[in-house]
User: What shape does this take?
Amino acid sequence: MLRWLSAALVMGALAPLVALAQAPDTRPADAKPAETKPAETKPAESKPATPKVYIPGLEQFMNVILTEHNKLWFAGRARNWPLAAYELGEIKEVMSDVQDFVPVFKSLPLADMMDAVIVKEIADLEKAIEAKDPKAFAAGFDRLTAACNACHQGTENGFIVIKRPTRPTFTNQDYRPHDRQR
Ligand code: HEC
Assistant: This one.
């Protein structure tokens, strides 16, 4: 009798809890809060985002030019004139990219400075390569290098000093001319 009573009391005490626990399951579906509704009030989110465009920093263009400057020297030294012409062409290309993408740098008219400082040196070196003249090539290469440094000085980057390389940056490119090219 006592055991039955206590069981009844326990059941009685638990009943509201059980009811609560079951409540969410027994509520009709449409009684649940409409969580997805606000989405349709934000149509802007469905617009495609404007793609970001990556523009390398000036120092990245310059480091590519530095690599090509190195290759140019070893191509010329090896009298591999087609390769020398190619590397100088690549330097011109990157410089023209600099003019397009970084025409002004720290309020300095970089594009105009490029024209003023280095165009003549490049043209002279092109002639030396065309003439397949090793002496004129070496002299022209040094004048090109001096022009690099002139601009570095003119842009308060005089601490960036370019010089004739003493060895190739890469050892896995063969700078010697090959018969097919001659
Ligand atoms: C018209 C101006 C101009 C000319 C010409 C120029 N540079 Fe530069 N160069 C700069 C400026 C400005 C910087 C500094 C960039 C920065 O602060 O991000 C620089 C930086 C550099 C750096 C440093 C990059 C680094 O991260 O260490 C190298 C290397 C370099 N130049 C190589 C060359 C070479 C090689 C040439 C010639 C073939 C050349 N530059 C010609 C303007 C020039």
